[in-house]
Design goal:
The protein has 214 residues and is α/β, with parallel strands linked by helices. The chain contains 12 helices and 5 strands. A 5-stranded parallel β-sheet has the order 3-2-1-4-5, sandwiched between helices.
């Protein structure tokens, strides 16, 4: 008789990457400190601003992530909600694409996974205009077989629906996927859907945990 508690997880064949904070630079506190130096003198003040601006990716920004509102609408809503000048909010919204700079260490990890024979996909909470920008400026089709942007499917992580959509689109068993994401709530949601998942901080920190795969 098999003892399920002693069974090891299936060795993942498919690696699924988050984008912001994993493949592309995204640190809202330092971002706002750079874009709004008159409002944030340091990263600590930037973090406080980020809480109000992005609402932990719920509220106004969550609707933008899900493709339910466009950039002018999210800009107006944030300005109305916070009292910040519309032009300053628009400055931040427009500056996000340039903030999403690729992280070379993660690109090397992608290349190592591919050389090891893994299939690679992505699952990213990303508003449509930013998704369009990334597709224009980076070789996503070379790195990944396919992927899901929240803004195009009108649902975002950690909603279970987006994991169901991704599994169906990738046409792979859930248990064959290893998901790399920098938000604990998304890791919990992925595991609840049957995916394996690892919390990402940096590529260097992750490497020892995935050494058996590369």
């Amino acid at each position: 008789m098999n003892n399920d508690k002693n069974e090891k997880p299936q060795k993942p064949e498919n690696i699924v990457f988050d984008f912001g904070g994993v493949l592309f630079r995204w640190h809202p506190a330092s971002f706002l400190a750079r874009v709004w130096p008159h409002r944030a003198a340091d990263v600590a003040q930037g973090a406080a601003l980020a809480t109000d601006f992005f609402q932990n990716y719920s509220g106004d920004w969550g609707a933008f992530d899900q493709g339910l509102i466009d950039a002018p609408t999210v800009t107006q809503r944030i300005a109305d909600r916070t009292g910040w000048p519309l032009a300053e909010v628009a400055q931040v919204v427009a500056a996000v694409p340039d903030e999403l700079q690729v992280l070379p260490d993660t690109v090397r990890l992608i290349e190592d996974f591919k050389r090891a024979g893994h299939r690679l996909f992505f699952l990213s909470n990303m508003p449509e205009p930013y998704a369009d920008h990334l597709e224009r400026h980076y070789p996503l089709h070379d790195w990944f077989e396919g992927g899901v942007f929240s803004g195009r499917v009108k649902v975002s992580k950690p909603d279970p629906t987006i994991f169901e959509l991704a599994t169906a689109q990738f046409e792979v068993p859930a248990q064959s996927c290893l998901f790399l994401d920098d938000h604990p709530a998304n890791i919990v949601a992925a595991r609840a859907h049957g995916w394996q998942a690892e919390l990402f901080t940096t590529a260097a920190e992750l490497r020892p945990r995935v050494a058996h795969l590369v």
